[in-house]
Amino acid sequence: MKSLLARWRKLNEWLRALVIAVAVLGGLHAFVLRWVTVQNTSMYRTLLPGDLLAVNILATWTGLDRNDVVVFRDPVQDDRVMARRDLLVKRIVALPGDIVQIKAGTVFVNGKRMNDVPGLTRSWLVRLKQPDDATSVIEHLQLPMDFVPTGRSFIELPLNEVLAEELDKGKLISDAEPMGAERGSPDHIFPYSPAFRWNADNYGPITIPAEGDTVQIDLGRLPLYDRIITRYEGRTLEAARNDVLMNGEPLREYVIAQDYCFVLGDSRNHSADSRYWGFLPMDHIVGRAAFVLLNKDADRGKLRGDRWFWGVD
């Protein structure tokens, strides 16, 4: 009998420890750290597909800054409740109240040129020695095998000077050169209006809305704020002749109810970001990327030995 009681007490101790451990992990997941797996190449080379990313949730309370890499709920998935929207990861380049402009691919904030982050990549045209060499190039760059072309001796890849030099020194390619700017049709660029003939490499200037800002509203400027007013801040608008109506009354000014920011992917020509869907509400942000715990290569089914506890700059 004593032996059974001792075993029961020991089992209870294990159960209590298990419950405490689960509670602690649940608390950490809810309030401190969240784990997210990177799925695509929009942040290449800062982040790679397969990275298990630690996200600092507390950063949404302590404050975010320019150049922070953030994880957020997809602002375009209006048909889903917030908790069921996909998670995306991009870099904040402009905060509420900032004026952002992109000239020939270079970002300016409040008139000041922003330095390129270390992992920034753009589209390069790479000429292969042989079409079969594409697999070796893609493996070296740690890109998904989706980038491998079929029967071609050239390929468009997200690169920078350092990566291009590595490929050249490794004698993996014939040559590589940056591709031109002027990417992205204005029809697919926010705010999708003939009055704003911007593209992905020449964009703005545009002011990022901040809580309490009063913005002028007319039919010409409505495309800038329509999504904010109707989707993010829940108002109903309608057009009547030359007026924009809210609650049946002509709307000339609107007071912004919350803060927004402007985000870009580090792989500038392979990222759907604020240039394509507009301002990101700050309340959509889950947290700031802290570090990469590990990377599992989905194409090759193995862990990468060089991505353990990788810092995110």
Tell me the overall shape: globular
Percent of residues in helices comes to 10-25%
Secondary-structure class: alpha+beta
What is the radius of gyration computed over CA atoms, rounded to a whole number of angstroms? 24 Å
What is the averaged pLDDT score?
A: 89
- How many runs of DSSP E, i.e. beta strands? 21
Please give the largest β-sheet. Answer: 9 strands, antiparallel
Our count of helices gives: 6
Order of helices and strands: HEEHEEEEEEHEHEEEHEEEEEHEEEE
Walk me through the structure:
Strands 1, 2, 3, 4, 17, 18, 19, 20 and 21 form a nine-stranded antiparallel beta sheet that branches. The chain has helices at residues 2-31, 59-62, 134-141, 161-169, 222-232, 274-277, and strands at 33-37, 51-56, 69-73, 87-94, 99-103, 106-109, 112-113, 122-128, 154-159, 173-178, 203-207, 214-216, 237-240, 243-246, 249-250, 253-255, 260-264, 280-281, 285-297, 302-303, 310-311. With 313 residues, the protein is α+β, with helices and mostly antiparallel strands. The protein is 21% helix and 32% strand. It contains six helices and 21 strands. It is globular. A hairpin with a 2-residue loop joins strand 13 and strand 14.
